[in-house]
Each structure stands twice: as structure tokens, then as C-alpha cells.
MFS transporter (Paractinoplanes deccanensis), 418 residues
Amino acid sequence: MLLADRHRGTHRAAGPGGLRRAGRLRELLVTGVLDSFGMALGWTFIVLIGTARGGLGEAALYNAAMLVGTVLSAPAAGWLSSRLSGRRLLRTAAAVELPMRFLVLLGVISGLPSWLVAVLIVVMHTAAWAGYAGLRAEVTAVDASPRTMTRFVICIVGVEAAGTALAALLPVGADGTPTGWLRHAVFTVFLGTLLPVMVIARRARIAPSASVFAPSPARGRHARPGWRLPMPGLMLAGGGVMLVAAGPSLLAVPVTEELYGSGWVAGAALAFCAGTLLADKAIGWMEKLALPAVLRWALWGLGMLAGWILAPLYAPFVLLAQFSAGLATTAFEGDMDAKVAAEATPGTLTRDLAYSASVRALGGAIAVRALPMMIAAPAIGLAASTSALALGAMSLIAWAGLTTMPHLFRRATAPSRP
């Protein structure tokens, strides 16, 4: 439930702490941008140091640990949100993540065993993604429209790319470790950018809902719905779109490097960022079509794939591919989070948004792992064509079902929403 009262017939709503709607959105946005920049900067150094120290194997271990933490963050966020208010959830997650950031970065610099660093990374990313779900829930509590959520995602994705690029360009030693003043600066930014989360948490609007884990006569005395996949249809559809469509864009760096050399890698990254900036307008255009969610998401998936069909033929097509992928991926994430927020009950909002991010991450991770096992870089266009055909076929089937047999797609019991 929300703790803020809104003035009737106006958007000038005063929330906790006296902040109005626009002010609160700006506060949440700036906090998310700072936090994401610090995480991207520090995480890039962690991966680079791990690669220099133990090769791709150690870097892969750290990325696998990140995925495990992302998946675990969903049930963790559900457990926390059922017991804590938005204020305490954000501060608890940040209080766990802050020392983990320090220990992980110190661990890779000082040469701790990679398995121990990986365990710390799991804890760090579990707390980080649980806190991110809480932050997105606060954004939704102020304005749950798809365009607002998409704008939030645009800023996060853009600043993460900036943090990653900056970390890659900064001078480091032969072992990938920053030295001197740069090491102190990296620690300061990595840790300090998390502090604003604790500050803005005092005006959080989300209240705890003990009913998330309460026994339900319909589910049984010992049922614990907070640990089950919520909205399985929506979640599986979102994860499926990432599984089918996100592989080429997520592998853009190694594929572009192999096809055309490192000179085009930076251009592809910039093109992806440029695409994210137009996601807001794309969401507005899509809203006018009033399409069902499953069809909108399929179109976003086709946008992720379209440019990669031609990318192996001519180097500049890589820029077009990543521009389209940046636009479609960002719009899809904002669209999916807004849909999940609209379907969630107030007490499960934070948990459901955490699951939304987890299933997307899981789908993308499987795609990244499976695609190189099936094809080489020059065949990426064929893979994109096949995936686009499969996604298009599924879209047509869904369209036919929604128009000719809507009762099959309607929930058995549709709860009334105010």
C-alpha cells in the first residue's frame, strides 16, 4: 500500500517528507544513476583484474556468481518486502551491499582465492538487485506508467555504459589493478555512490505486507507464495523473449571483435547507448497501438534481432544492429516492469519487480552461453534470422489466439483492481 496521499485531480501530489511527485522522481532517478555508475565502474575493474589474474575462466566464474546473485535476489526481495517497509528494505540491502563491495574489490586486488571472491560476489549482487527492485518499486509508487519506468531504465543503462567505458579507459598496472591515487578513487566511487540510497530511503512510500507469506485457505496452510514464481505467464514470456532475442546484442563485443576488429567495438557500444535514448518515444508510439503485452514484447524482441541479420555483411551494419538492440532492449525492460507493476498487488510489488529482472537476466545468460556453442561469429546473421522467424511465428500464434479464442488467454479469476 502507498503511504502518500494525492491531491484530487492533479499530479502535484505531496509524498512523505513534503516532496512532490516530480521532485521525488528526480530524487530517485539521481540516486539510481549514481549507484549504477559506481557499480558499473567497480564491477568492470573487478572483471578486468580477474581476467588479468586468471584469464577468461576466472572472469566467467565472477559473471556466473553475478547471475546466481541476480536470481537469488528475487526470493530475497520477496522475503524482505513482506517484513520491512521500503525505507528499511533499501537501507538493509545497502547495509549488506556496502561491505560486500569493499571486500570483493579488496579481494581481487589482494589475491584472495577466486572461489571466495565468487561467494562474496553472490552476496553482493543478491543485495544489489534486491535494493534495485526496491528502488524501482518506489518509482512505480510515484508513477507506474510504462514511459516513466522506461525513462528510469534509459538513465540506468546509459550511465552503466559510461561507467564501464571509463573503467576500461583508465590506466592500470600489468595485472589490471589500479594503482596510486586511482585505486583510492575507485574505492571511493565504488563505495560512496551507494550512500545516497540510504539517504533517500527515509522518504520511501512502500509499506510491508505480511500477507505475502501468510497462509491462505486456497493455497493450503503451509503455502508460501512469496517463494513461488509470481505471474508465471508474464515472467516466462519475458524470460523467453530474452532467451530468443538477446543473444546477439549481449555478445556484441566478442562478435564485433572477431568480425571487424576492436575499432568497431567502441562504435557499437555508442550506438547501443544512442538507441536507448529513443526508447521513451518508442514506448509512446507503441502505447498508441494498444497491443497486448505478449505482442508488444515480441516486437521488442524482433527489434533486438533485426539489425544482426545483416551485421556480418558490412561493418557499419553492426552500428545499426546495436542501435536497434539498445532501443528495443531498453523499451522491453521498461514495458515489462510496468506491466508487472500493474498486475502486482501492493504487498508484492517489490518482490515481483525483482523476479522480473531475474527472469530477464536468466534468459539472457542462457542465450549468451548457448549461442557460441551452436554457431561461430560469421553465422550470427543466420542465427538472428532463425530467432526472428521463431519469434515472429510465436507472435502470429499469440495474435490468432487473442483474436479468435480470447477465453483461452483470460485469467480464470480476474481480481478487480481499483
User: Anything to note?
Assistant: The radius of gyration is 21 Å. The chain is about 75% helix and 0% strand.
